[in-house]
Amino acid sequence: MTLPPTTPMAPGAHKFPQVTGIRWFNVAILVLTPLIAVYGLAFVPLVTKTTVFACGYYLFSMLGITAGYHRLWSHRSYNACLPLQIFLMLGGISSVQGSCYFWARSHRSHHRWTDTEKDPYDSSRGLFWTHLGWIIFKTKLRSGPVDSSDLGTDPLVQWTHYNYFPLAAVFGYALPALIPALWNDFWGGFCFSGALRLTIAHHCTFAINSLAHYLGSTPYDDRLSPRDHLLSAILTMGEGYHNFHHQFPMDYRNAYLWYQYDPTKWFIAVCKLLGLASNLRVFPSNEIAKGALTMQLKHLKKVQDSIIWPREVEQLPIVTWDNFQEESKSRPLILVSGFIHDVSTFLDQHPGGAACLTKNTGKDMTAAFFGGVYRHSNAAHNLMSMMRVGILAGGVCPPNQSIPPSQVLFVARRQQPDTQPDTPTQ
């Protein structure tokens, strides 16, 4: 039996999808909220207590997304006790970005189908699509299937999913205004703790899907779009080291190196110290190092391929001693490590003067070159290898002297073995 062909879901450039409708509720939230924030900045006095509360409530909302919706429920990168789960769940709800069930399921689909047509926020469709388009437009696109059975059986996730709208109204809008009302600043709370906080939280979170796939470097893998960048990390509470995250998604850290900015990682680590979190998952350091080395070697291979190297030994003619002596009468040829070098283009540049070379034409200068007269630098050895014009027949070529220092370590591409069967399966 011959297996039927299939169309692979490979990463590639995809056009902005055809819009079939508008999600007007989402549009209203994303338009009215910043307008209220702008109105507040223009006309509502800023009270110190409200400012401090707004900043604290913003951290509460962002941690609910980064440490809760994302690292706990989307990736199960650690375990949290029930009080911490409730804290993070309410924080995520206060950011008004949908229920945890919706958010985590979409995010898993994004990881499973990254940069394909089944990716709900496919980066190849452009920054606007990944930042806002997928949220406000209805299309015929369908997210790729993922296993979300654990979310379906989690009582907290399910209860908040079915009660999301009243919870979002209370924690997203009511509490941020009512708490500042205790010090007679209801409107300041409504505009700053409510609308301004939500606006910043929305777009900083959306930047995970947009900027983190466009801005920065690819230190672990460059086959897909996720990038690492400090700016993205600052905007997203540490989520900006996205290249690392897509390579090692179940690691509770987004920033692997100690000096990288990842306050969400620090928060989870502190929760572990307090006994609130456990089983913090980390990818083996050895395998992370392999990913980093792979990309470093890939970069070095590009640099290596851009450099002009000496001619291969197989391309050089083999010359007898008599021919070497005869040729040396018409041009300055010097023997070093079994190789014959034409130094005519270097006479005027030699630090010791041209006479040092011309008086030794036709001689074996191996011992002198490697310390008998002067121990030449790696740069001198590399440069001299570019002047090779032949190999002396029967000459001695010491291994530690024949290879230029720049070629002692050399990046080679290893071909994958052929794993295809010799005959088709019947």
From TrEMBL:
Catalytic activities: octadecanoyl-CoA + 2 Fe(II)-[cytochrome b5] + O2 + 2 H(+) = (9Z)-octadecenoyl-CoA + 2 Fe(III)-[cytochrome b5] + 2 H2O
A molecular-function term among this protein's GO annotations: stearoyl-CoA 9-desaturase activity
EC number: 1.14.19.1
Keyword Metal-binding among UniProt keywords: yes
Keywords: Electron transport, Fatty acid biosynthesis, Fatty acid metabolism, Heme, Iron, Lipid biosynthesis, Lipid metabolism, Membrane, Metal-binding, Oxidoreductase, Transmembrane, Transmembrane helix, Transport
Pfam families per record: Cyt-b5, FA_desaturase
One Gene Ontology cellular component: endoplasmic reticulum membrane
SMART domains hit by this protein: Cyt-b5
Cofactor: Fe(2+)
GO BP annotations, alphabetical order: unsaturated fatty acid biosynthetic process
UniProt domain Cytochrome b5 heme-binding: residue ranges: 325-393
Predominant subcellular localization, coarse grouping: membrane
Known function: Stearoyl-CoA desaturase that utilizes O(2) and electrons from reduced cytochrome b5 to introduce the first double bond into saturated fatty acyl-CoA substrates.
Protein name: Acyl-CoA desaturase
Species annotation: Favolaschia claudopus
Lineage: Eukaryota, Fungi, Dikarya, Basidiomycota, Agaricomycotina
